[in-house]
């Protein structure tokens, strides 16, 4: 095998969870050990493939995106013109690719999902159904980060909602149905806004010409590359003659329509991120979903919002992003301060972590708002770092809840005596969350805020206040749980089992690795971020004027 580019590696990553799902459904429902083993193996396989891909991508210096493209739908259509009925086509492709923006998130997805599968020992009913929805969820998440066709992206994005709804509603805690309904309602609204934006984009910018012997054929396409090229070079369409386009000139994207699409995308992905005030659904999920599901939700699903905002909002509409950079930064600061202050006053540890996620995703928004290479690189780094840290924290919370039956801070204390391993992992994860140098949390926060300081220093300074508050509420919570007097009923608890310890050690190892050797991730991000930044600068230079 000469080159990884000769292998359909992206389809292999994508198909692995589906293969596991098919095997899982063929097993007897009462064979718990078989079901566990199959599900875990089905998550380890895409992890191995993604590690292989990551190494090869780094080795080739990002020169290969491993593209795969096959026609998915090809619908012939007719259009009436003065010259008669002209034929054109509506084409959607099964199109996959990776770059320095999506590849780190693919690796994050496969690693966190595999660790969450190991952590699913807390589930006590309907194993086969749980793991079936679990693997379908991984399939959807991987598709979101790999898809390069707008319709394909939307299908995968929607596919993540259905499994999450059932995973929360069936295996969650007391108010699980309300949490599941709220999750579906908010994310459904966001999906509707995204679909409207995508339909407009395909209709107005998803055109390409295909030369045949008889005529020039006109094609609607959901291809991300086609849309990006048309948006960045509208003159190519304006200068076409009617004869070249079968009497049609597709380019009628006004400036107002560009703003409409940008704002629709911002709202759609802002709900997923989430941006204040569209965050209340996330609090319910964090407190009511089972630990392994919250690991995936906080570690991966929230990142889909930031990824979509970068991929579709910022890169396709850089002029609008530049004009609204200040607004994005203000929203980021609100997220940082609002999340940090409310986390400071919570009395329940899961709510502390939920508001902490809001605050940390605000830092991601600050990095995006900087619109420079340092800040946006820091934002992507923060996405990966927070994915590992939040997954580890909720894994520990799940283990503590299983043993103590509570996550109320006033009922926990002195657990370092009876649970030294879990307490040590909790302390390390807490230090990473507050941004201690030498752990991954520091790098992402530092670069994101540093990038913002280049253009908006006062907002950067306000964000630093949120970072300071973060240290206060993390230390208050973590030290309160691990030290101090211990309740008599907690004095004889058993420490972590092997199947719990393994994912904790793996996640902590990656947190430490990224903290002491950030180049292993930052080099891959920068391979793409430089080109992304240049595209944004080019768009700001006037080529992105969609008026007309």
Layout: helices, strands, pairs:
Elements: H1 9-25, H2 32-59, E1 68-81, E2 84-96, H3 103-118, H4 127-146, H5 150-159, H6 161-171, H7 176-205, E3 207-211, E4 216-221, H8 224-232, H9 235-238, H10 255-272, H11 280-288, H12 291-314, H13 318-323, H14 325-345, H15 349-370, H16 373-404, H17 415-418, H18 420-433, H19 440-453, H20 457-482, H21 498-516, H22 519-543
Parallel strand pairs: 2-4
Antiparallel strand pairs: 1-2, 3-4
Structural summary, described in words:
The chain has 548 residues and is an alpha+beta fold. The protein is 69% helix and 7% strand. It has 22 helices and 4 strands. It has helices at 9-25, 32-59, 103-118, 127-146, 150-159, 161-171, 176-205, 224-232, 235-238, 255-272, 280-288, 291-314, 318-323, 325-345, 349-370, 373-404, 415-418, 420-433, 440-453, 457-482, 498-516, 519-543; strands at 68-81, 84-96, 207-211, 216-221. It has a 4-stranded mixed β-sheet. A hairpin with a 4-residue loop joins strand 3 and strand 4. The protein is globular. Residues 542-548 have low confidence and may be disordered.
TL;DR of this structure?
The protein is an alpha+beta fold and 548 residues long. The chain is 69% helix and 7% strand.
Distance between the termini: 51 Å
Label the overall shape: globular
How would you describe the oligomerization state of the chains in this entry?
single chain
Helix content estimate: 55-70%
The parts where pLDDT drops under 50 for at least 5 residues are 542-548
Order of helices and strands, N to C? Answer: HHEEHHHHHEEHHHHHHHHHHHHHHH
Question: How is the biggest beta sheet arranged?
Answer: 4 strands, mixed
Structural class: alpha+beta
Q: How much of the polypeptide forms β-strand, as a percent range?
A: 5-15%
Structural Rg? 24 Å
Q: Helix segment count?
A: 22
Quantity of strands, as a count: 4
What is the mean pLDDT? 88
Q: In order across it, which strands form the biggest sheet?
A: 1-2-4-3
């Amino acid at each position: 095998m000469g080159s990884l580019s000769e292998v359909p590696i992206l389809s292999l990553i994508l198909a692995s969870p589906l293969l596991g799902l098919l095997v899982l459904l063929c097993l007897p429902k009462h064979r718990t050990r078989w079901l566990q083993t199959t599900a875990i193996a089905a998550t380890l396989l895409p992890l191995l493939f993604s590690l292989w891909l990551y190494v090869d991508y780094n080795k080739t210096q990002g020169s290969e995106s491993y593209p795969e493209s096959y026609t998915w739908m090809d619908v012939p259509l007719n259009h009436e013109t003065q010259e008669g009925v002209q034929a054109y086509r509506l084409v959607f492709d099964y199109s996959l690719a990776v770059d320095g923006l999506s590849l780190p998130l693919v690796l994050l997805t496969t690693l966190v999902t595999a660790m969450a599968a190991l952590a699913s020992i807390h589930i006590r009913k309907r194993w086969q159904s749980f793991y079936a929805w679990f693997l379908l969820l991984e399939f959807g998440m991987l598709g979101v980060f790999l898809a390069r066709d707008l319709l394909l992206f939307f299908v995968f994005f929607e596919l993540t909602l259905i499994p999450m709804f059932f995973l929360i509603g069936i295996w969650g805690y007391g108010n699980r149905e309300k949490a599941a309904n709220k999750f579906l309602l908010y994310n459904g609204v966001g999906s509707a806004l995204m679909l409207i934006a995508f339909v407009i984009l395909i209709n107005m910018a998803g055109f390409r010409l295909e030369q045949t012997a008889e005529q020039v054929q006109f094609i609607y396409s959901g291809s991300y590359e086609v849309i990006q090229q048309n948006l960045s070079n509208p003159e190519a369409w304006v200068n076409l003659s009617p004869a070249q386009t079968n009497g049609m000139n597709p380019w009628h994207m006004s400036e107002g329509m560009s703003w409409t699409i940008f704002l629709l995308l911002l709202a759609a992905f802002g709900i997923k991120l989430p941006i204040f005030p569209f965050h209340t659904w996330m609090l319910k999920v964090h407190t009511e979903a089972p630990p392994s599901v919250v690991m995936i939700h906080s570690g991966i699903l929230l990142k889909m919002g930031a990824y979509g905002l970068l991929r579709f909002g910022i890169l396709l509409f850089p002029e609008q992003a530049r004009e609204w950079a200040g607004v994005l930064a203000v929203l980021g600061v609100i997220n940082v301060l609002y999340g940090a202050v409310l986390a400071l006053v919570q009395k329940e540890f899961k709510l502390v972590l939920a508001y902490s996620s809001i605050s940390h995703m605000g830092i991601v928004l600050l990095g995006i708002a900087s619109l420079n290479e340092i800040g946006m690189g820091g934002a992507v780094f923060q996405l990966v770092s927070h994915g590992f840290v939040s997954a580890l924290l909720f894994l520990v919370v799940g283990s503590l809840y299983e043993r103590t039956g509570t996550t109320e801070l006033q009922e926990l204390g002195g657990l370092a005596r009876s649970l030294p391993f879990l307490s040590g992992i909790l302390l390390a994860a807490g230090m990473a969350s507050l941004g201690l140098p030498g752990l991954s949390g520091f790098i992402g926060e530092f670069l994101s805020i540093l990038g913002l300081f280049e253009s908006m220093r006062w907002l950067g300074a306000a964000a630093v206040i949120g970072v300071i508050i973060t240290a206060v509420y993390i230390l208050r919570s973590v030290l309160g749980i691990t030290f101090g007097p211990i309740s008599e009923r907690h004095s004889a608890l058993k420490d972590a089992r092997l199947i719990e310890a393994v994912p904790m050690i793996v996640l902590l190892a990656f947190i430490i690795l990224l903290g002491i050797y950030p180049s292993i991730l930052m080099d891959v991000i920068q391979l793409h971020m430089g080109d992304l930044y240049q595209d944004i600068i080019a768009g700001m230079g006037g080529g992105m004027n969609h008026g007309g």
